[in-house]
Amino acid sequence: MKNLYKLFSWAMISATSLSFTACSDSFFDRFPTDSMQMETYLKNDTEIQNILFNGYYHLQDITLNVNYVNSLATDEGYDYKKNNSVDHISLNESTWDATLGITSQIWEHCFNTINRCNNVIQKIDNASEGNRKQYEGEARFLRAYAYFTLVRLFGPVPITTTPIEDYSSLYNYDRSSENEVYQLIKDDIEIAINNLPEYYTNATMQGRATKIAAYTMQAEVFMTLQDFTSAKSSLEYVINYTNKNNEKLGLENDVLQIYASDNPMGKEIIFASQYNNGATVVANPLMGRCIPAATPSTQPAYTYLDGSSSTITTSQGTSCMLMTWELYNMFRTNENDQRFQKLVYNGIYSDEYISNASPEVDVTTEGYTYLPVTLKYFDFKNEGLTTCASGNDNIIYRYADVLLMYAECLNETGSVELAANYLNQVRTRAGLANTTATTKEEMDLAIENERMLELCFEGHRWYDLVRKSRITDVMEAHFAHRTQGLNPTLQSSDNGMTVSNSSDTNGTPGTWKWTGSSAPVLFGIPYDQIQLSTNWTQNELY
User: Fold this and answer.
1) Do 453 and 399 contact (CB within 8 A), yes or no?
2) CA 264, 268, 270 angle in degrees (round to 5)?
3) Which candidate, 368, 380, 395, 487, has a CA 20 to 30 Å from the CA of 444?
4) Reduced to 3 DSSP states, what percent helix, strand and coil does the chain have, rounded to the nearest 5?
5) Where are the beta strands (DSSP E) in 375-510?
6) 529-540 pLDDT per residue, tens
7) To which H or E segment does residue 77 belong?
8) pLDDT bracket for residue 367 (50, 70, 90)
9) DSSP label at 492?
């Protein structure tokens, strides 16, 4: 069982005992107001940890929905089943509005995290002296992460640094400027860096925020603000630490080990939202999202590299986060790529459909397709193979990401040749030759492509493209590839594939949401929140 999950379990029980006595719209919506007032709680280490760990627990919902945004709203993932959630389809077809449930969930869980962190920070003097710095460092880290997520997706958002009764009361606050939000984030990260340990020697503590995780987030914040010199300095701390402590942090030799549920918080993982090994209740739902649903459900199950077969049936899949042909084609340009061989399932069902032996894609009248999927969330080590319940974590930061961020910073600050050295570390582990990029422009695209290959379905693509002001160009090209008249729409022109049985015309996407618009690339403030406020201005295009 995951170490941190044990702590989650107790935190959830404690939160349950508090929350169920209150009138609430959802499980973690608010602190109780009619049974136990927060001013009478958080009076010792145990109670502070209970609230703090609920902040960690919210990461499951935040990262799940962040993964949806970064995959389905970009050229990384397709929703291939026409009767899936309206949210998944609208993200994938660039038709979403301010009622989008996925971003509303991000908003809710981020502000719930912030509120819990504010309570911990306010009551931190009640913690024992030996734990006080660490608890505050964790609370500052989690609050920074929540606000960093919010400001990247929504732009100006309300700042609250004191506890509030209910996140929905935010309408009483003004939307703070992006500069103000980023200043709070930077201040919180600095405190986290000063307060947190580099590494937890106690195995039961692993998975909690660390100084290394704080430096990594700090670097990403600086990069988002186009301050590549400062970002480079933050990353150098992480790299120097790794060089001295390679047994604790560094690249895994085998890419499969990164995602193995029996290797929680392996040495490549810097920070992750954890799930329980083999869980059937607190399990990662992304495994089922990455399984193509098909009819009939008696189709052959998956066969893996070792020749064994899973007992997962196609009826357990939802087909909402499958691999785009742009991404698949990037992988298969080099079939020696270990990430392609071990983490992409491209022989779905039989040669009658898509496989290495046949270029044909079958689109049935029900709107299903049999297409490549990522195996990053497939729990091979536990009962997930029979229950479709994955114990694989949602990775937020890992060392390969650090190397690629550092390569980008070096390239942006004029060190193209040195950037290649760090890019090549990731490529070498994947079994690829060194990059041939020699100019700043070539290196920029090489790093962007490598990040897509290495970090796909881990919640980075939207952020990367927005940071680089590339998202409109990339997404307009993506929609130009999607064959009209099909649901789901397929790229059929650039890979020599033929499409059969294409009678279904529902759900044909139109154009990229920002085509012809100079509006900032932001999601709409959730509709229910904007309706409550009389002084908020909704983001453009909503």
Assistant:
1) no
2) 80
3) 395
4) 50, 10, 45
5) 394-398, 498-500
6) 999 888 899 999
7) strand 77-78
8) very low
9) -
Tokens standing for 428? 């070498």
* Residue whose token pair is 């299903």: 368
Model confidence pLDDT, tens digit, residues 407-441: 999 999 999 999 999 999 999 999 999 999 999 99
Q: Which residues pair with 498 in a beta bridge?
A: 360
- Compute the distance between CA of residue 15 and CA of residue 10 in angstroms, rounded to an integer: 9
3-state secondary structure of 84: coil
**Rounded to whole angstroms, how far apart are CA atoms 279 and 390?**
7
From CA 363, how far away is CA 325, in angstroms rounded?
Answer: 14
DSSP-assigned letter for residue 432: P
Give me the pLDDT at residue 364, please: 45
Please tell me the pTM assigned to this model. Answer: 0.87
CA distance readout (Å), 56 to 49, 90, 116, 119, 396: 10, 29, 10, 14, 12
Query: What count of residues does the chain have?
Result: 542
The torsion angle over the Cα atoms of residues 44, 46, 51 and 53, rounded to 10 degrees, is: 140
pLDDT of the residue at 372: 76
Cβ atoms of 195 and 134 closer than 8 Å: yes
Question: Domains (ranges, CATH) in the chain?
Answer: 3-196 (1.25.40.390), 276-392 (no CATH)
Within the chain, what is the greatest distance between any pair of CA atoms? 69
